[in-house]
Structure formats: C-alpha cells, structure tokens
Amino acid sequence: MNLKRLSYFCQLAKSGNFTRAANVIGIAQPALSISIRKLEEELGLKLINRAEKNDLLTSEGKVLFDSATKLLAQAQLVELELQELKDLSRGTVKVGISAMMGSYYLTDAILAFKQQYPDITIQLIDQGTATLEMMLSNGELDIALLRDVHEGSHLRYVGVIQEQMVVGVAASHAFASLSAVSLAQFCSQSLVLFHEGYFLREAVSQYSKTHKLSLDIKMETNLIELQKTLVKNNIGITTCLPKVLGDQPELVAVPFAPPIVLNLGLAWKKNHYLSIASKAFIDFVKQFLQPKP
Length: 293
What we know:
The structure is a single chain. The protein has 293 residues and is an alpha/beta fold. It has three domains: 3-86, Winged helix-like DNA-binding domain superfamily/Winged helix DNA-binding domain (Arc Repressor Mutant, subunit A), CATH 1.10.10.10; 91-161 and 264-289, D-Maltodextrin-Binding Protein, domain 2 (3-Layer(aba) Sandwich), CATH 3.40.190; 162-261, 3-Layer(aba) Sandwich (D-Maltodextrin-Binding Protein, domain 2), CATH 3.40.190.290. It is built from twelve helices and eight strands. It has helices at residues 3-15, 18-25, 29-43, 59-86, 99-104, 107-116, 129-137, 183-187, 199-210, 224-232, 242-245, 276-289, and strands spanning 91-97, 120-126, 143-147, 155-170, 190-193, 216-220, 238-240, 251-269. Helix 1 (3-15) packs across helix 4. The longest helix has 28 residues, at 59-86. The protein is elongated and about 75 Å long. The N and C termini lie far apart (57 Å).
C-alpha cells in the first residue's frame, strides 16, 4: 500500500474537500484527485462520495480513515526511531505548557537544555491543562507540564514543581494587608481570571459551582502582563503564582487559607514512543528543577 497516497487520503478526510486538502499538502487539486483514484483502484473500494457534499467519505472510506490514521502515526514513529539511530544528538520534542509556566518557571531550564543539546528542536504548544491532557492522549504531544496527574492507565508522570497559589491584588486593595484570604472572600470581589481549563482558574470555578455563586468577572485573559495591569488599576483581583508578581511594589501576593498547593509535573503517554530527545528533556528538566542543597 502506498503510504503517500494514504496520507493524502487522510488529509482529504480531515480537510473535508479536495481544494483545501490540496492546499494543505501543497499539490495541485487534479494531482490529488488522481492519487485518490489510484488508491481506490489499488484497494478495489470506493472511498469518496464525489457527488455528496455533506458526507465526503463512504462507509468504507470512514473505516479506512480510522485505520490509516493509526498506521501513519506508527510509520512516523518508525521513521523517528531510524533517524535517531543515525544521529542521537538530533530530534524534536513537542512540549505542551501554559504561557505563564513557560515564561516564569521553565525559561532557565529550557535555555540550559538548548545550550547542552543545541541540535534538538523544542516545539512549545501553549494550551490549558484539559487541552494539553487531551493532546497527550491523542499523540499530538510528546510531553506536557500538567497539574496533579495521578499515574493512570494512559499517562506517566514525574513531579518537578511545587508551588502555592496566591491572590494577586493591588497594594492599595483592602486584601493587601491581610495575612491570608479564603476562597469565599476571593469570590466576593471583582475578578480578573484566566480562561476556563487553566489550573489557576480551576479552584475558583469549582468553589463557585459548589456554592452556586455568581462571580463578578471583569475580564478573562491569559495575558499575564494585561492581568497585572488590570490588578494594579484595581479593576479586579486575580489568582497567580508568587514568581509572576516578582518585585513589583504595586502588587501584593496574599496566600489562600487554607493553602492551595499546586503540584506540577511532566507527563507523557504510556504507549506513545518516547524519543531519546524527549527522554533527555525529561531527565534534564527534572534534575535542573530539583531544589539545590
């Protein structure tokens, strides 16, 4: 079976029509049509409903798409393993991480890793916790930095960061003089929050749903600098990690009571091939972030 034709077929199934698929692949539409017809002839099956706009794949095409997706993913893993056998110093690592964690907690580790392994490419994908876990499960990522992943049937996990979530307020805010703030007190204020699906939003969302509270959310944004500007100007208060506030006198970090501790670690799919480059990244970051004596 011709893998190139199979990959063209899968792209066609994902794109929904010949024009979009041809543009993504980078070939002319007639060439794509010929390739799909040859695949149909090779298999002796009709795969495409050419007269049906709303249902592109035939029933046979749908079955093939599911199997072909798995086959092509396996072929990519084989190709990756063969490339690594040729040159173990090269490779690509797809790492899922939130923008905040990448900017404030892993910057030095990634810089040090690149200095030691200059030929390994790191692709950073910025998403929320729920999306990152789904992408890991789908094989779209090699590694992701996730919160409190308990090793289950499909993920492995190694803890690398433990941090306490705090309330970020302006120095002029009434909470700035308090030694701690409860979730009930926090939820009674005007808020600037991360979008749903990010771990700094989870505790607040769960508490408000449990207690059936209507939150006064002035803005939802994942842009850290914008959040800090809004907090400085008393538009609202936010949840954050202490390192994000830094040494800014206009902002104050107040702990939650009881404390909300975040355990963060690197996770990867158990049955997904973990490249030598990915293993090197996990080992390096784990050692780099270990508390120094």
